[in-house]
Automatic annotation (TrEMBL):
Pathway: Cell wall biogenesis; peptidoglycan biosynthesis
Active-site residues annotated for this sequence: 178, 228, 298
Signal peptide start-end: none
Main location (coarse class): cytoplasm
Its job: Cell wall formation.
Gene3D superfamilies per UniProt: 3.30.465.10, UDP-N-acetylenolpyruvoylglucosamine reductase, C-terminal domain (3.90.78.10), Uridine Diphospho-n-acetylenolpyruvylglucosamine Reductase, domain 2 (3.30.43.10)
Organism the protein comes from: Paraliobacillus ryukyuensis
Listed cofactors: FAD
Gene responsible for this protein: murB
Name the UniProt record assigns to this protein: UDP-N-acetylenolpyruvoylglucosamine reductase
Length: 305
């Protein structure tokens, strides 16, 4: 049931400008998969204080609250998300202090890696092809090509479920393979501090160019997708298991397993979220039957059917 009470709009309007509040907003506009239902209220706060106030209001009014980055590793079901969805899309500042790059949560981690290149700082080259935001990268300890966020994160600023600002050291986030304690603690990341090292600009540039070429040649970037769907199972590679299960090109509705990279599921022809999730489940079922391996999702699924 949609939360669309005038009182909610009135309360949000007391916190942020009305131009930052969208009612019944199609989340397909904000997701890399280009599918999924609507948000009752989609809010793009202008500063930290507004985030804190929205969190406190949602708590007091007992309204569901969801944080949405740029939707690169996320599927929203066709029924959408009830309550308030907050986007940090206006939090995009990146700046340097010594050998530390400080980035707000709505900045793309790709942009942070290129800012590091400009500043002749090394340590974030691995992130040059990760499409998520800084907040999302911390949320799942994003990684690629042998590097991950925990290798260079020093600390971050978050809002806790009570609306309080906290500064946390990286060691307090329980960062591990594609996981952290951010979801279970209910933290909203506002800012991250990346501790880097001075490096040779040409070496950094060459590394990033090589990684970009690898990504573009191997990944199906021509179709909407949520990126790599599954975590790497111990002793295996998810893509190889899917490929050996002869699932590439197999699909349901408008979604199918990519013929270019078996670890990706693409929205090839106006897929629904139901199609997309059904393909994920088909892949998990088939790989389990053929190889006895449980594929665990890396991608998050939110919302109602």
């Amino acid at each position: 049931m949609m939360v669309n009470e005038p009182s909610v709009l009135e309360a949000l309007s007391q916190i942020t400008a009305e131009e930052n509040i969208f009612i019944d907003e199609p989340l397909s506009k904000h997701l890399y998969t280009k599918l999924g239902g609507n948000a009752d209220f989609f809010v793009t706060p202008a500063n930290r204080a507004e985030v804190q106030k929205i969190v406190r209001y949602a708590n007091q009014a007992n309204i569901s609250f969801t944080l949405l980055g740029n939707g690169s590793n996320l599927i929203v079901r066709d029924g959408g998300i009830r309550g308030i969805v907050v986007s940090p899309k206006k939090f995009t500042n990146i700046y340097r202090e010594g050998n530390t790059l400080i980035a707000e949560s709505g900045a793309r981690i790709i942009d942070v890696s290129y800012r590091a290149l400009e500043e002749k700082l090394t340590g974030l080259e691995f992130a040059c092809g990760i499409p998520g935001t800084v907040g999302g990268a911390l949320y799942m300890n994003a990684g690629a090509y042998g590097g991950e966020i925990k290798d260079c994160l020093e600390k971050c600023v978050v809002v806790d479920p009570d609306g309080q600002l906290l500064t946390l050291q990286a060691s307090e986030l329980a960062l591990d393979y594609r996981t952290s304690n951010i979801p279970e603690k209910g933290y909203i990341v506002l800012e991250a501090h990346f501790s880097l090292l001075p490096g040779d600009v040409n070496t950094i540039k060459e590394t990033m160019a090589n990684l970009t070429e690898k990504r573009e040649s191997k990944q199906p970037l021509e179709y909407p997708s949520c990126g790599s769907v599954f975590k790497r199972p111990a002793g295996y590679f998810a893509g190889k298991l899917i490929q050996d299960s002869e699932l590439q090109g197999k699909g349901i509705g408008g979604a199918e397993v990519s013929t270019k990279h078996a670890g990706f599921i693409v929205n090839k022809n106006n897929a629904t979220a139901t199609d997309y999730i059904a393909v994920i489940e088909m892949v998990q079922r088939t790989v389990k039957e053929k190889f006895g391996v449980d594929l665990e999702r890396e991608v998050r699924i939110l919302g109602e059917d």
